Amino acid sequence: MKYSEMNKEQLTAEKEKVQKAYDDFKRQGLKLTMARGVPAPEQLDLSINMLLHCLDGDYKSKSGADCRSYGVLDGIPEAKELFMEMLGVKEDEVIVGGNSSLQMMYDTIIRAMQLGVLHSEKPWCKYDKVKFLCPAPGYDRHFAMCEALGIEMITVPYKEDGPDMDMIEKLVAEDETIKGVWCVPMYSNPTGISYSDEVVRRFANLKPKAKDFRIFWDNAYSVHHLYDDDRDKILNIIRECEKAGNPDMVFEFSSTSKISFPGGGLAVICASKANIELIKSQMAYQTIGFDKLNQLRHVKYFKNFEGIEKHMKAHAAIIRPKFEVVKYILEKELAPLGIGEWTNPKGGYFISFNAPEGCAKRIVALAKDAGVVMTNAGATYPYGKDPKDSNIRIAPTYPSVDDLRKAMELFCVCVRLAYLEKIAG
Amino acid sequence: MKYSEMNKEQLTAEKEKVQKAYDDFKRQGLKLTMARGVPAPEQLDLSINMLLHCLDGDYKSKSGADCRSYGVLDGIPEAKELFMEMLGVKEDEVIVGGNSSLQMMYDTIIRAMQLGVLHSEKPWCKYDKVKFLCPAPGYDRHFAMCEALGIEMITVPYKEDGPDMDMIEKLVAEDETIKGVWCVPMYSNPTGISYSDEVVRRFANLKPKAKDFRIFWDNAYSVHHLYDDDRDKILNIIRECEKAGNPDMVFEFSSTSKISFPGGGLAVICASKANIELIKSQMAYQTIGFDKLNQLRHVKYFKNFEGIEKHMKAHAAIIRPKFEVVKYILEKELAPLGIGEWTNPKGGYFISFNAPEGCAKRIVALAKDAGVVMTNAGATYPYGKDPKDSNIRIAPTYPSVDDLRKAMELFCVCVRLAYLEKIAG
């Protein structure tokens, strides 16, 4: 019976039952986390040969550079090729960097603040206020970065196939202090949805008032499919911007953090040739070059895009059952009661759960008290403030299937209890 | 006979002779570089076991963290220990980062520009003008970084035991827009000198008008001795600043670029606990963590500071003969003629040559035309402008001893020719 169909008495009885179930869980002393999008140890094991056997005495890039020494600011050519194939960009549209795409995003924004980007009239720090559009729920570290750098965030709601483009089109056309928009276009963090062709094309065709407006296209999960035969596919934003006559309007980021190793992968920025030229000229003062040995290691291990695709299937085999158990338990425990909504992603690292309004904080607190750590409620919104106190990000990859089942069972009890506390008093 | 003792006729004859020698060199079609402080391939070979055998299936830091995964922003504890021993700092005074100390310096300055440092009244970018003191000759990339970020540079001359401290004391006490000073305190780039105890103490006891003034102490060559029994030693700036009641006034940088690999080493920033706390809190928005696998690789290979010291002796055995051949040829070819002065460093990567005034650019151009690339004349001064057009940085580590001998013979011919062109017309 759905909760909405229960009378007061039934709800009170239900609450007592659920409270008891919760107390039982609490006594189990669980210690689990579904908080962050972290690969499981078995996923990390997939790439260990990269660490053991890949650098076998040949340290030369095909450019002739000794990867052990200085230089090659924008990455060795063979590492570029790996990403060119993966992201559909050209040789002069890519820079391969260090181990963190987050760092590349931060560096890109702080360079924009201090020096400006292509077509900037002045560095962004010379404005009283700079603003970014933040489709939400989104990636908490994007929002934290804006907050730390004093960039004002404007929340944009999501629709089924991407952010509310009507709102984005209107805002960027009006306000020249809106300098950027955050996007996770594929298997989005946390919703798991991928932008439709129409959404990508509307992004590429934006007519921003600011000549130096940039789309920050964090394509973190472009090859992170769960299924072989049912995959999302998005349009290539760099090509679409080119077609739309806005070739310089986008910075695309990606990494191998969830392909090889989060702690020792490769990050990449892609953009128009003109953007890349300016970035390289600015970056030349920051470093002589990134870790080319790690670039070479990745090339020798994956060889080409086919190697990456094959490798991603091994990841999928590990994490697919975890996504499925989450969805199975949500379906089993909550669907009949008619509370909560959740996404059904075909890839990425997250499932997004929308609790009944005003319940998310309480659910996360209940789960924590019973030993299961979730991403903080609100974290998926600018300033950590979810206006509906509803969204919770579920990160199923790290725990084992058994742990996950237990954690999700507890989670569902917490959802029920929080809701019943609210309506049954 | 010294050139200063020759009459016009003798000088003209000498010039003809030297011109002929130069033309002979030119015909040899040399292709050599003494331009940058780059380890030789044999030096890079010293550490190859780090790449082959070090990560043997155990990827756990002693903190319990899996080095393949996310996290540990400030570096794994065992990597910190390596640098704590090397630089004489405490656990909470160090952050181990990525592969580039230059990047750490840049990031430190750009954070200061955007956010400010400890004790800043406002971010540095909010001043109309920010200035750095630049002891010169110094490291070209320090100066280029300032120029790129719009920081005005004030050149400070060198004395025998370090920068002119009278001038530095006076300037920092007067001008609150002077926010920093660049130092390479040990085997300085390019002079090769190390700061005397008095100089270090005077640095530590500066009374800057700006509360957020910082000494940028680029301790790049702290273990890069050429000799076992004749080594420079400098005072520990962090301890001296502490004693002087200025604990937060210094940022110290170092790296293993010239210990393990320039392209795949570790960089480090050291400072007071209070500084490090603020830096970590600011840095948390830039990255989740640096490459911990590379940190672990270094720890497993070097084990401890003793391991580093032993390793540095192997480097010294390779590069000592190169420094000696440079000094030998300068002594043999130029000392009898009484032209030019050069330093006699006991470590580091450079020998600094002062040509007769107004000759440096011409010497470098002559050498280049004959196939030997030197560091650009002027590069060792702010804005690339050596007021005396005299200083040339010699980087002897990369070429083989035989190539170096040839290059230095040509170099001496170029010095003579440039000087004779100038005085004999």
How would you describe this structure to a colleague?
The structure is a homodimer of 425-residue chains. In chain A, the strands form 3 sheets. In chain A, strands 2-9-8-7-6-3-4-5 form an 8-stranded mixed sheet, sandwiched between helices. A 3-stranded antiparallel sheet of chain A has the order 10-11-13, with helices on one face. Chain A has 2 domains: 3-43 and 309-424, Aspartate Aminotransferase, domain 1, CATH 3.90.1150.10; 62-303, Aspartate Aminotransferase, domain 2. In chain A, strand 6 (178-183), helix 8 (197-204) and strand 7 form a beta-alpha-beta unit. The longest helix of chain A has 29 residues, at 305-333. Chain A is 41% helix and 13% strand. By secondary structure, chain A is of the alpha/beta class. Chain A is globular. The model of chain A has no long low-confidence stretch (mean pLDDT 96). At the A-B interface, helix 3, helix 5, helix 6 and helix 11 of A face helix 3, helix 5, helix 6 and helix 11 of B.
